[in-house]
C-alpha cells in the first residue's frame, strides 16, 4: 500500500470568494447581503502508512466577516477515482466531489463568545481500501466548512479541493517525462552597443528568475547519478551575448541618456554554469537568435531572416560551449511550440531533426481515449523529422503557480495528479503500454517563483513517472504517430503572429543594412574590409533580427523601438557616403570633363563604384563606371570624361554602388545636365564629306571647261598646223599636206561672231566637230565625228552656212 504525496504539503482551495480570501460560498445558500469572507487553508496532507491507514489533512479556518456564524465544522470528502484528465480538470475548478468518506469535526473551532479563532484543525479519513493492487489511482479530496449563518440552517460556507494519488508498490509502466527549460529573456541588445535596460542584472542575481531556472536544471545532475542529466536546456543566444557584454563595464539606455553599468561577476558565473551543465552530459541547444516568430517569417516569405536567426543562434551557443555548431543544430524549439507545417518543412531543410510542438497542434486521434505518446514522425520535403508534442496542461500547471505559500501544496498536488492520470489512462488502454510526455516550459518561465521548478523536477521521479532525456523520446518504441491526428494550425494562432506588413517593414531595413555590409565589409579582394565596420554591420543585422522576436507579439512597441533605433543608425551610415555634382556643365569642345565630389563622413574607409548612365548614349558617351577608394571623413573630387557627338543638353545620372553592385541610398545619386555647343565627330564627318563632294563636282566642271577652251584656242590659233605644231602630238614639226586654199584653212581664218567688219559669222567649229566635247555620245548632240586626217570628206554643198546673231 502506498500514497504518493511526497513530503508534507500545503493544500488550498482553487476558488475564492474575494481577493485575499479562500473558499467558495455556494450560490443560493447564503442570505442576501451576507458578509462572509472566509479563509480556508490546508497546511498539510499526511500519507497513510503501514502504521496508520488514514489520510490526515490539517489546516485552519478564519472568519473575517460581520455576520454571526455558529456551529462551524469541517467535512472531509474523498471522491471516487477520477477516470480521465478532463474529469480532473473539471474537479479542480470546484465541481462537487461525490462523497465516499465523510467525517464531521465540530469541536475546538469556536471560542466562548462564538467567534472563529482560526486555530488549526485536523481531519482524517481511512483510504486504505482505495489503494489499487496494481497501477495508480487519483482521488479528489474536498474539505468543506459547514455552519450556520445568523441562525439559519447548517450549510457549506467554504470549500477547498485537492487530489491524492494512490499507487501500487510497483507500477508496471511509468510515464517517461522529458523536461525542456528555455533560458530566455526579451531581447535587450541595441545596434549601438547599449542594452535597452539594466533589468538583466536582477534576473541572473541570487534569487533571480533566470538564476533559479538554471540552478534547478543544474541540480538534476545529482538526481540520477548513474546517468547524464535529463533536462534539455534551450539557451537564448541574445541572452548569452548580453551577459558577455556585462562581464565588463557596459552601458544601457535610459530616458535621460545612456547610463554606465558596472561589470557584473554574476554574468560570467551564469555562463560558466551553462558550460558545466553541458560538460556533465546535459543537453544544451540553441534557441533561434532573437527568438524570432518563425511562422510569421515563413508566411511573409522572409526565409532568409529565418535561416539567419537559426544559424546565428547555433553559432553563438556553439562558441560558448566550445563545440562544432553541427553538434547542436538537431533541436528546434519555436517560441512556445507554435509552428505550422510549412515552418516545420523549412526547419527540416535547415538541418533540424527534432522540433518541439505544442500538443494542441498535434491533437489525439478520435479513437484514442488516453494521452498519446509525445514522439511523432512528420514527413517533410527533405525527409522525416521528429516532432515532440509538448503537453500544455503540464506547462500551465507549472507556470500557474503564483508563489503564495498557502497555494504551493495545492499546485504541487495538482501537478502530481496530472502525471498520475496520464499513466492511469495508458494503463487502462493497455496494461503493458508505456509512453512519453514532454513538459516544455514557455519563454517567460523565469517569472515562476523561487524554488518552484526544483520542486517540480523532484516530483517527476515517482512510482508512476520518471525523467528521460531527449534522445529517448525519439525512440521508435515510444512513437505516437498513429495516436495523433496530424499537425494543425488554427486561424487564431495565425492572427497572433507578427503582421506581414510589420515583417516586410523590418525586411526593408534589413536590405539597407545588407547594402552597408557590402560597402563596409565587401567579399571582393579588391575592396579590403574594415574589421570594426564589419562588427558594426553585424550588430545592425542582429538587432533587426531581434525586431522580429516572438516576444513582440504582445509588446509590439518594444520591437518597433529596437527596429527604429537600428534603422536610424543604418540610415546615418548610408547617407554618410554621397556624391555631389553641379546641376549644369558646359562643354566647349566635343570632349570634356564633368566634375563631381565624393564624400565619406563615416568612420571607415570604403570602396565605391560610380555608375554613369546617360539617357542618350548615342550622342553623349562616357565610361560606364569608375571605382574609387574613399578615406574615412574625407572628400574626393573626380572628373568624368564625356564625348558629345552633337550639340544639345544631355542629362547623365551618377549613382554610387558597392563593389558587388548594390545601390546606395538617394544621397548617393546625382543628376548633371551636360550642355554641348559644338558639332560632334559624326556631324563634322558628314559636313566635310558633303563639302568634298561639292568640290569634286566643281573641279570636274572646271576641267571640262578648260578642255573645251583649249580646243577653241587650238582652232583659233592654228594649233596643230605645220606653222604652229602642237608639241603634245607625236608628229609635231613634221611636214604635212598643205591645207592652203582648202575649206578647212578658210574656216580656220574666219572671223568670230560679233566681228565689227559686219561679215557673216562663221561657225568656228569645222563641220562634224563635236560642239560639246565633255558630253561624248550624248544623243542630244548627235554622233561624235572623228577629228583629223581620218575625218570623212564633207558632202558636196554642205559648206558652212551663215549663223544669225541669235545663234540660229
TrEMBL record:
Residues 1-34, 714-808 are annotated as: Disordered. It comes from the Bacteria. Residues 13-33, 788-800 have a biased composition (Low complexity). Residues 723-732, 771-781 have a biased composition (Basic and acidic residues). Keywords: Membrane, Transmembrane, Transmembrane helix. The chain crosses the membrane at residues 678-700. The keyword Transmembrane helix applies. Signal peptide: none annotated. Pfam families: DUF6049. The keyword Membrane applies. This is Uncharacterized protein. The lineage of its organism: Bacteria, Bacillati, Actinomycetota, Actinomycetes, Frankiales.
Amino acid at each position: 500500500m502506498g500514497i504518493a504525496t511526497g513530503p508534507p504539503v500545503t493544500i488550498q482551495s482553487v476558488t475564492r470568494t474575494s481577493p485575499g480570501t479562500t473558499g467558495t460560498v455556494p450560490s443560493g445558500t447564503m442570505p442576501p447581503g451576507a458578509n462572509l469572507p472566509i479563509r480556508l487553508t490546508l497546511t498539510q496532507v499526511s500519507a497513510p502508512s503501514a502504521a496508520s491507514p488514514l489520510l490526515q489533512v490539517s489546516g485552519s479556518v478564519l472568519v473575517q466577516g460581520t455576520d454571526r456564524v455558529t456551529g462551524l465544522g469541517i467535512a472531509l470528502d474523498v471522491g471516487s477515482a477520477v477516470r480521465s484528465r478532463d474529469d480532473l480538470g473539471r474537479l479542480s475548478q470546484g465541481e462537487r466531489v461525490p462523497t465516499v468518506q465523510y467525517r464531521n469535526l465540530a469541536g475546538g473551532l469556536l471560542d466562548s463568545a462564538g467567534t472563529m479563532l482560526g486555530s488549526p484543525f485536523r481531519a482524517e479519513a481511512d483510504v486504505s481500501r482505495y489503494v489499487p493492487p496494481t497501477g495508480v489511482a487519483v482521488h479528489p479530496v474536498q474539505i468543506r466548512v459547514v455552519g450556520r449563518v445568523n441562525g439559519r440552517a447548517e450549510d457549506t460556507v467554504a470549500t477547498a479541493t485537492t487530489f491524492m494519488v494512490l499507487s501500487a508498490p510497483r507500477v508496471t509502466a511509468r510515464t517517461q517525462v522529458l523536461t525542456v527549460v528555455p533560458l530566455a529573456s526579451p531581447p535587450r541588445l541595441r545596434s549601438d552597443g547599449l542594452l535597452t535596460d539594466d533589468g538583466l542584472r536582477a534576473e541572473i542575481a541570487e534569487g533571480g528568475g533566470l538564476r533559479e531556472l538554471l540552478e534547478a536544471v543544474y541540480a538534476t545532475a545529482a538526481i540520477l547519478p548513474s546517468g547524464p542529466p535529463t533536462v534539455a536546456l534551450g539557451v537564448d543566444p541574445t541572452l548569452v551575448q548580453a551577459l558577455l557584454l556585462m562581464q565588463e563595464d557596459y552601458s544601457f539606455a535610459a530616458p535621460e541618456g545612456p547610463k554606465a553599468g558596472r561589470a557584473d561577476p554574476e554574468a560570467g558565473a551564469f555562463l560558466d554554469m551553462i558550460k558545466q551543465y553541458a560538460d556533465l552530459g546535459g543537453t544544451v541547444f540553441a534557441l533561434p537568435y532573437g527568438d524570432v516568430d518563425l511562422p510569421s517569417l515563413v508566411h511573409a516569405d522572409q526565409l532568409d531572416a529565418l535561416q539567419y536567426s537559426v544559424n546565428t543562434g547555433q553559432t553563438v551557443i556553439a562558441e560558448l560551449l566550445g563545440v562544432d555548431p553541427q553538434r547542436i543544430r538537431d533541436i528546434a524549439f519555436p517560441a512556445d511550440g507554435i509552428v505550422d507545417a510549412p515552418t516545420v518543412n523549412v526547419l527540416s531543410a535547415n538541418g533540424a531533426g527534432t522540433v518541439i510542438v505544442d500538443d494542441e497542434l498535434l491533437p489525439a486521434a478520435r479513437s484514442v481515449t488516453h494521452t498519446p505518446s509525445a514522439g511523432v514522425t512528420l514527413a517533410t520535403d527533405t525527409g522525416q523529422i521528429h516532432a515532440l508534442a509538448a503537453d500544455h496542461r503540464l506547462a500551465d500547471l507549472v507556470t500557474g503557480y503564483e508563489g503564495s505559500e498557502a497555494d504551493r501544496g495545492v499546485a504541487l498536488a495538482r501537478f502530481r495528479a496530472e502525471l498520475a492520470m496520464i499513466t492511469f489512462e495508458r494503463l487502462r488502454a493497455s496494461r503493458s503500454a508505456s509512453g512519453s510526455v514532454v513538459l516544455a516550459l514557455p519563454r517567460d518561465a523565469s517569472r515562476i517563483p523561487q524554488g518552484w521548478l526544483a520542486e517540480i523536477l523532484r516530483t517527476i521521479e515517482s512510482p508512476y513517472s520518471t525523467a528521460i532525456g531527449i534522445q529517448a523520446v525519439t525512440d521508435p518504441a515510444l512513437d505516437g504517430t498513429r495516436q495523433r491526428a496530424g499537425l494543425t494550425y488554427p486561424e487564431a494562432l495565425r492572427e497572433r503572429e507578427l503582421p506581414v506588413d510589420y515583417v516586410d517593414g523590418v525586411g526593408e531595413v534589413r536590405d539597407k543594412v545588407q547594402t552597408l555590409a557590402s560597402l563596409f565589409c565587401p567579399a571582393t579582394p579588391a575592396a579590403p574590409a574594415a574589421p570594426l565596420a564589419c562588427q558594426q554591420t553585424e550588430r545592425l543585422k542582429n538587432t533587426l533580427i531581434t525586431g522580429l522576436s516572438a516576444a513582440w507579439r504582445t509588446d509590439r512597441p518594444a520591437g518597433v523601438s529596437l527596429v527604429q533605433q537600428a534603422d536610424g543608425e543604418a540610415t546615418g551610415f548610408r547617407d554618410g557616403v554621397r556624391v555631389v555634382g553641379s546641376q549644369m556643365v558646359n562643354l566647349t569642345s566635343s570632349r570634356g570633363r564633368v566634375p563631381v565630389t565624393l564624400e565619406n563622413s563615416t568612420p571607415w574607409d570604403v570602396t565605391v563604384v560610380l555608375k554613369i548612365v546617360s539617357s542618350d548614349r548615342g550622342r553623349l558617351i562616357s565610361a560606364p563606371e569608375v571605382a574609387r577608394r574613399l578615406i574615412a571623413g574625407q572628400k574626393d573630387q573626380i572628373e568624368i570624361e564625356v564625348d558629345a557627338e552633337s550639340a544639345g543638353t544631355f542629362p547623365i545620372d551618377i549613382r554610387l554602388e558597392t563593389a558587388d553592385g548594390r545601390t546606395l541610398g538617394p544621397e548617393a545619386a546625382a543628376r548633371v545636365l551636360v550642355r554641348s555647343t559644338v558639332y560632334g565627330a559624326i556631324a563634322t564627318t558628314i559636313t566635310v564629306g558633303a563639302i568634298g563632294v561639292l568640290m569634286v563636282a566643281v573641279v570636274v566642271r572646271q576641267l571640262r571647261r578648260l578642255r573645251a577652251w583649249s580646243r577653241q584656242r587650238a582652232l583659233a590659233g592654228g594649233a596643230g598646223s605645220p606653222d604652229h605644231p602642237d608639241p603634245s602630238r607625236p608628229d609635231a614639226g613634221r611636214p604635212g599636206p598643205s591645207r592652203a586654199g582648202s575649206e578647212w584653212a578658210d574656216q580656220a581664218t574666219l572671223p568670230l561672231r560679233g566681228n565689227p567688219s559686219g561679215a557673216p559669222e562663221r561657225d568656228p567649229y569645222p563641220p562634224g566637230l563635236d560642239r560639246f566635247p565633255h558630253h561624248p555620245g550624248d544623243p542630244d548632240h548627235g554622233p561624235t565625228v572623228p577629228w583629223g586626217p581620218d575625218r570623212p570628206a564633207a558632202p558636196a554643198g554642205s559648206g558652212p552656212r551663215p549663223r544669225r546673231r541669235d545663234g540660229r
